[in-house]
Structure formats: C-alpha cells, structure tokens
C-alpha cells in the first residue's frame, strides 16, 4: 500500500490516478492535522460494498461460505447461462 502526501498528490495527480487505476490498489493520502484518506478505483469500492452486503446476514454468509467450500472441494457444476 503506497502512501503520499496531499502536496505530492496535488502536484502529480494524473500520475497517481493512473497508478491506482493500473494497480487496482488503494493509495493512502496523508494530510497535516487530518485523518489519512484512501483513494481507490470505484469498481473496487463497489465490489467491497457488494461483498459486505452479501455477508451482512449470518444465514447468507454461512450459505456463501458453504458454497465456496464445495467449490474448493471440487463439487462445483459448470452450467451454461443460456440454454
């Protein structure tokens, strides 16, 4: 995880944005007398929010984790989405 100062971000914004987009990872921006902020691609944020939503209820989380375990054990079945 890379850290930059706000001043460095401001002076090299396009370069930092391009790097965040290419790496698909967050960039931590530090500012004096403020909490650090994270800059990340929107798709990554949406993915994290979707994962949190899917794991929000214990029953759904258990079902998803059980399904993942079945796939890991080689019990998955590949199907065509279009018949």
Structural overview:
Helix content is 54%, strand content 13%. It starts with a strand and ends in an 11-residue tail after the last helix. It is of the alpha+beta class. The model has no long low-confidence stretch (mean pLDDT 94). The protein contains four helices and three strands, in the order βααββαα. The chain has two domains: 2-40, YefM-like domain (YefM-like fold, 3-Layer(aba) Sandwich); 43-72. It has a three-stranded mixed β-sheet with strand order 1-2-3. The protein is elongated.
Write down the CATH class of the largest domain. Alpha Beta
Query: What is the tally of beta strands?
Result: 3
Total discrete domains: 2
The CATH superfamily of the largest domain appears as YefM-like domain
Q: What is the chain-wise order of helices and strands?
A: EHHEEHH
Bin the strand percentage. 5-15%
Radius of gyration: 19 Å
Alpha-beta content class: alpha+beta
The outline comes out as elongated
- What's the number of helices? 4
Describe the structure concisely for a colleague:
This protein folds into 2 domains: 2-40, 3-Layer(aba) Sandwich (YefM-like fold), CATH 3.40.1620; 43-72. Helix content is 54%, strand content 13%.
């Amino acid at each position: 995880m890379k850290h930059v100062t706000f001043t460095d971000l401001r002076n090299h914004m396009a370069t930092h944005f391009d790097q965040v987009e290419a790496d698909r990872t967050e960039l931590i921006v530090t500012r004096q007398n403020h909490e650090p902020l994270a800059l990340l691609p929107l798709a990554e944020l949406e993915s994290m929010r979707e994962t949190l939503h899917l794991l929000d209820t214990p029953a759904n989380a258990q079902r998803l984790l059980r399904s993942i375990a079945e796939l890991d054990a080689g019990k998955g079945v590949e199907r065509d989405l279009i018949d």
